[in-house]
Amino acid sequence: MRYSPLLYLAPFAAAITLDTSSVSSIESATSSVAQDMMSYYTGNQPGQVPGLLPGSLSCNPNVEGTYCWWEAGAMWGALINYWQYTNDTTYNNLTINALQFQRGPDNNYNPPNQSRSMGVDDQVFWAFSALDAVESNFPEAGGDNPSWLSLAQAVFNFQHDLWDPLTCGGGFRWQVFSFNAGYNLKNSISNGGNFQLSARLAYITGNSTYGDWANKVWDWMESSPLLQTDANTGTFYIWDNTDSNNNCTDVQNFVWSYNYGTMLSGAAYMYNFTNGSDLWLNRVETILNSTYSLFFPQEFGGNIMYELECEKSLNCDQDQKSFKAYLARWMAVTSVLVPSTAATIKPKLAASAAGAAGQCDGGSDGRTCGLQWTTATWDGTSGVGQQMAALSVMGSNLMTENMRPLTLRTGATSKSDPNAGVDAPSNPAATREPITTADKAGAGILTVLVICVMVGGSAWLVY
Ligand SMILES: *[C@@H]1O[C@H](CO)[C@@H](O)[C@H](O)[C@H]1NC(C)=O
Ligand SMILES: *[C@@H]1O[C@H](CO)[C@@H](O)[C@H](O)[C@H]1NC(C)=O
Ligand SMILES: *[C@@H]1O[C@H](CO)[C@@H](O)[C@H](O)[C@H]1NC(C)=O
Ligand SMILES: *[C@@H]1O[C@H](CO)[C@@H](O)[C@H](O)[C@H]1NC(C)=O
Ligand SMILES: *[C@@H]1O[C@H](CO)[C@@H](O)[C@H](O)[C@H]1NC(C)=O
Ligand SMILES: *[C@@H]1O[C@H](CO)[C@@H](O)[C@H](O)[C@H]1NC(C)=O
Ligand SMILES: *[C@@H]1O[C@H](CO)[C@@H](O)[C@H](O)[C@H]1NC(C)=O
Ligand SMILES: *[C@@H]1O[C@H](CO)[C@@H](O)[C@H](O)[C@H]1NC(C)=O
Predict the structure, then answer these.
(1) The pTM is what?
(2) Which of 247, 249, 250, 440 to probe ligand 4 with, by most ligand atoms within 8 A of CB?
(3) DSSP labels for 87-105?
(4) Is 264 helix (H, G, I), strand (E, B) or coil?
(5) Could you say which DSSP state residue 373 is in?
(6) CATH code, domain carrying 274
(7) Which of 36, 42, 203, 404 has the fewest CB atoms within 10 Å, i.e. is most exposed?
């Protein structure tokens, strides 16, 4: 199943050399890129907080050199993927410690330190990393620590109660807490993130409650202005956010690669969960086709991933610099879950990885990765996002059928706890209704009551 017929080489000599048809070449390149990514991590040093990147305690994505909490969560997932791709266990213990240390007092990735900017999207990225662990049988922490699967289930149970039917006919607000800026917005990464979380839990556990919920989130997004198809070009748009203060009648017209990635892979898991339904196959193909036209522009040959809104002018913020990492991983997962997509996905991952390698020739070490994979001249930028995106796209070329996400029926060993976190003190529902798709409980309002002592915070748009 490994894709190898084409050999993509960076156009010029690069400090990170990569032959995407060679497993050992990818192992060697990803090892260097991962090492440089981890040079930014200090959470394992005395006096530092495990799991966090610099700046994660007061996040502002416009400050160079600092990283929001969610991105640290995503980084641990990238390292689980790296281990799965290469068998290199170097970062496993750091990853286990990080994912457990940041799980919060209720084991649901809602640590009070992060309340001032806690979004549904931020939380779900940590859950994604726990799910990556489940799907690859990444070692459990053991002892009294919660299983990877139960951590993701606890996030599902927490977020379930944030569903807000009182405005816009449903959907998740971006922010968990009403005192944070952005609480009025309903955005695609929060809704699409929860959609993916639900679809993966359905796939892993076979429990149709999760599948019903994924359908509900998709249906709401489709009925909202977040998902739109251009009648002339056929382009499928996943817009950034819509405003509940206007009952979601307007929409912010920005497109980000990670929004396409999260909806794509969620649809791929649902394709599997529905036994290969035409409905979900069509959704996978629809998203994929527009992912190609928007984020793999013909201008650069049509196979190199490109962050449309900000890459060319190099004004991506700290969050945005990492987005291509997620699209790469989620395309690779899709190529396995929906095998008919592999033929078009694999050449794009190969060419993008070669482009990324060409861009990893900067900095004082001569192998620092920039953002612009479409040119082999280092763009002068550096950071965790750039390293993670390069790591993820290179590693994704090692994704094979053998690495097909595991389920509880096909060898995943993480322990399921569908009721994880249900009774947790921080759970938004004071009194819970049974979880059903016909749920009408206006539980979102109750979040206001939680941790309302932590006023005065500000939050930052995740784009
Ligand atoms: C990783 O280990 C597995 C199991 O031993 C093996 O099948 C696989 O080929 C290894 N992968 C790499 C990239 O070395
Ligand atoms: C990880 O930690 C375990 C338990 O503390 C230890 O036995 C193991 O050697 C560590 N592995 C690595 C790769 O450091
Ligand atoms: C929260 O912040 C405090 C103070 O910096 C720190 O001691 C603690 O370890 C942090 N906890 C988490 C989960 O980040
Ligand atoms: C808000 O939007 C929802 C969904 O479109 C609609 O059902 C509802 O009637 C709208 N509410 C108001 C007050 O316009
Ligand atoms: C998929 O197939 C299985 C086994 O035939 C069946 O039990 C299940 O209900 C099917 N799922 C859906 C969503 O059709
Ligand atoms: C769905 O995934 C499971 C587990 O990986 C696999 O056994 C099954 O064949 C897949 N079904 C479809 C329709 O692809
Ligand atoms: C996606 O694009 C392919 C190739 O152009 C086309 O054959 C297919 O019909 C498209 N699928 C959808 C659902 O748009
Ligand atoms: C399925 O998931 C729901 C929601 O978490 C839970 O209430 C239910 O007990 C689960 N069912 C099984 C059979 O695990």
Answers:
(1) 0.91
(2) 247
(3) ---TTHHHHHHHHHHTTTT
(4) helix
(5) T
(6) 1.50.10.20
(7) 42
